[in-house]
What does this fold into?
Amino acid sequence: MAVDTTTPRSRRALLAAAAGGLAALAAQTLGRPAAIRAADGDPVLLGQLNSETIETEIENTDPSGTALIGHSGTDGTGLQGLTSAGVGVSGGAGTGTGVYGFSGTGKAVLGHSESGSKPAILGDSGGANTGVQGWSGSGAVPAAPDKVGVFGDAGPDSDAATRGVYGRSGAGRGVHGSATSGKGVVGRSETGTGGYFSAGAGGTAFQAVGPVKFSSAGLKTIPSGSASALVDPGVPITTGSKVLCTLQTSAGGSTTVKRVQRDPIAGKFTIYLTAPAASNCVVAWFVIA
It folds into this structure.
């Protein structure tokens, strides 16, 4: 339809158009908080988007007071910090705690990241102490060891179900350890079992790829003319110890290993041949507790 530019608009039409424009502007304004372009030094206005060009600092001179408290409803957020590429929320302390999280029945601190190459939570110890420490138990939190990436401690609990660190996976690795020239995984127990492996029906409790070394295994040379040799294995010998022995070199003729005599008191055992060795012979031994 062509627009008639020659016909003058009535006063009533002009007023109606102006009222409509004001109504649209009001509706748009109510839909979002307007930025307050106040000058630096002006007070903070509640319920408004405040804008500044320098940081705002709140100081509480009370030695045990709180500088700022953010409180929200049941499912809201008490305090939120946003940034596009910087740090959303930063907390710092000289000798205290930089950031502290507490929850009655929920999660005290939750880290979530959508990145495929960045961790949700990163612990970095610039003083060569522990990067991340986990403690489950009562009493005082133990001191963190030096040069440890992740340290988990379940406390001095007598319950066998406690776990300092627990790893689980469906088809992958529950716990993975890797080292360039050291030990990938080390387990130690003072009176229990340093490393325990179990498997269900159809599984394998322990599998090794590559050479295997045992401190409870070794070689013993029986000199020519002797029919026995005493071995100090360096591991406890009990009445339940199983000692496996086999010749590695010929003892001459049909001479072979006859038996092993264990001495639990001395912690040693003696290898006996069926006859004196015609020449020096080497016997391999393996002690199974």
